[in-house]
Amino acid sequence: MGDLVLITGGAGFIGSHLTDELLKRGYRVRIIDNLLPQVHGSVSVKPSYLNPEAEFIRADICDSEALRKALKGVKAVFHLPASVGVGQSMYQIKKYTQTNNIGTSVLLENLLHTSVEKLVVASSMSIYGEGLYKGSDGFIHNTTIRTVDQLRKAQWDLCCEDGTVMEPLPTPESKVPCLASIYALSKYDQERMCLLIGNAYNIPTVALRFFNVYGTRQALSNPYTGVLAIFASRYLNSRPPMIFEDGKQRRDFVHVYDVCTACCCALERCIANLSINIGSGIYYSISQVALELSKVLGKTDIEPLISGKFRIGDIRHCFADITLAKNVLGYKPKITLEKGLIELAAWLENQIAHDKLDIANSELVARGLTS
Ligand code: UD1
Questions:
Q1: Is residue 188 annotated as part of the catalytic site, yes or no?
Q2: Catalytic option among 183, 188, 257, 331
């Protein structure tokens, strides 16, 4: 019989795919998840895509008693649960701190008395804030930010003092964290807490810093989720995607299958006390991504709306340097964006997406977090 692995937050998008991959590799899987309505809909039933071979416990990550039971006989833990809306985290501060920070503390307290031999925690590129940049003077800039004043003037790019636009570079793990939202702060806390306790109690621990993960099973009706799911939901409802700024901001889209392979390598390799970027290492602009998605959905007649508006806390560019992942995990992303979007489109054909973007955006407007 294979080792038992616990996935906290395992009913979500990444967790459910990871469940499939672990079962395929011969592990036994136990999931603990509270089926958050924002992700799973108001009825909050166990999602039909969840692999029936996995054991399922419905409980909150802050439920210490449930976690204690869930950890019985477990050899390794993947810690995935998180509230994930960057903008939303700036007004639902207690909720984000509760799930992300307190939830992690509850897990860690319960881990101390177990025979768990590996902990893998989902961290995020959000902790970097802006990615790494090079100025026209050749200097590397580690802690650049955009001011709200600059954004109000539609000066989207990061510039040197002489006004020249800085060049974005692949971001390595050594980049100084620059925490621009409660969400980013909470992900950094999650990562640090796990690494610190793992090190102190000799539980080999690895933090994987996910970039913009996409794929099937993303919560399409959750307007606080990633941009691809939001755009898909707009196209499916025959509405134009709403692009912030000028659409030239760059991101690193990594397919959920590649993320799951990386997770399994982190589990199986003899490594500890490391934070590792998991991206594709390739960047796309947001406009490009909207266009690519419209092509696979046959919706090229719908022109995206380039709004010139912005979200406070958004970054301009960030894409991953994946050298460390290649070296220590043997990680090699396999799914190109083109291939990943074709698979996504096939899945989307049978999905109903409730487009709630207007609600999400008006919440940001009401709080002065967009303009
Ligand atoms: C953020 C987090 C990331 C998290 C992800 C999903 C940061 C730096 N990163 O990433 O860790 O996993 O959210 O919650 O905080 N956009 C539009 N129109 C839309 C929605 C988004 O143009 O309707 C643009 C945004 O302005 C942004 C880009 O698309 O420039 C990507 O946005 P999003 O998917 O929210 O993710 P990130 O901000 O990259």
A1: no
A2: 183
pLDDT at 357: 64
Taking only the tens place, the pLDDT of each residue in 146-156 is 999 999 999 99
Q: Compute how many other C-beta atoms are within 10 angstroms of the C-beta atom of residue 327.
A: 10
Note the residue count of the chain.
371
CB 344, CB 232: distance < 8 Å: yes
Q: How far apart are the first and last CA of the chain?
A: 56
Distances (CA, A) of 134 to 26, 160, 205: 46, 9, 32
Contact 116, 71 (CB under 8 A): yes
224 confidence band (pLDDT: 50, 70, 90): low
* Amino acid of residue 326: K
User: Mean pLDDT score of the chain, rounded to an integer?
Assistant: 93
pTM for the whole thing? 0.95
Backbone angles phi, psi at 107, to 5 degrees: -60, -50
Residues contacting ligand 1 via CB (< 6 Å): 84-86, 124-126, 181, 184, 212, 225-227, 230, 242-244, 249, 251, 286, 311, 314-315, 357
pLDDT the model gives residue 138: 94
d(CA 171, CA 345): 30
d(CA 84, CA 225): 7
Closest C-alpha to 3, from 63, 73, 98: 73
